[in-house]
Write a structure and sequence with these properties.
This protein is an alpha+beta fold and 216 residues long. The chain has two domains: 1-30; 39-214, Glutaredoxin (3-Layer(aba) Sandwich), CATH 3.40.30.10. Helices cover 57% and strands 11% of the residues. The chain has ten helices and five strands, in the order ααββαβααααααββα. Strands 1-3-2-4-5 form a five-stranded mixed β-sheet. Helix 4 (102-114) packs antiparallel against helix 5, helix 4 (102-114) packs across helix 8 (155-164) and helix 7 runs antiparallel to helix 8 (155-164). The radius of gyration is 23 Å and the shape is globular. It starts with a helix and ends with a helix.
């Protein structure tokens, strides 16, 4: 092979290699590559939220779900790391066929919200999940009342909300919206209206980073 032919072959190899690399890079699965969700279904005007950043994160969660409990610490870290850049919404999706106390937890959190301390109860339920997840219904309600009292809330009102399912309609609305969006497991996260397909903390961070680029 002549010197010129060798040079031409080398150039072609570089070009083909570059094209293959470009194809692979552009065909990697997006961390939040699901279809765009209807915003009116995804978030309601009274949905619980933290922050005021440009990127919206929505979680459909179940207070008794072990995976949600495991996600809670890194979700809090993400909200700290991306402070000022994201807005986080939490919506109820109790898997009542699997978790006997999930609905009670949701009612307790909603009553805490009515008393001005939703996020405090939300955090307490997740951080103390192992204390109450295996209790009987009555014992779980009593435990949630204790948490409320410790947080400076009216514990009796929290227990009554659980007994009377005071927030049943609100919780059912959240669950219905999740079902419409084809949520079938918890936690399920959406970033800027797209379902995060890659599980775990890094998957959520990747989706947030990609969304932030779109807001520049």
């Amino acid at each position: 092979m002549s010197r010129e032919a060798k040079i031409l072959t080398a150039i072609l190899v570089v070009i083909v290699g570059g094209l293959i690399g470009l194809f692979v890079a552009t065909n990697q699965p997006d961390a939040a590559a699901g279809p765009q969700a209807d915003h009116a279904t995804l978030v309601k005007s009274d949905s619980h939220k933290q922050g005021s950043g440009a990127v919206e994160i929505v979680e459909f969660g179940d207070y008794q779900c072990p995976a949600c409990g495991n996600a809670h610490p890194w979700m809090k870290k993400i909200l700290t790391d991306y402070q000022g850049k994201v807005t986080f919404y939490f919506r109820n999706f109790p898997l009542t066929n699997l978790h006997a106390n999930a609905l009670a937890g949701a009612n307790a959190a909603e009553e805490a919200a009515a008393q001005g301390k939703f996020w405090e109860m939300h955090d307490k339920l997740y951080e103390s999940q192992s204390e109450w997840s295996t209790l009987s219904a009555d014992a779980a309600a009593a435990k949630f009342g204790e948490y409320a009292t410790a947080l400076g809330l009216d514990g009796e009102k929290v227990k009554n909300a659980i007994t009377n399912q005071t927030y049943k309609d609100l919780i059912n609305r959240d669950t219905a919206d999740g079902t419409t969006l084809q949520v079938n497991a918890t936690p399920t996260f959406y970033v800027d209206g797209r379902k995060v397909e890659t599980a775990g903390e890094q998957g959520l961070r990747d989706a947030i980073d990609a969304a932030l680029k779109n807001h520049k």
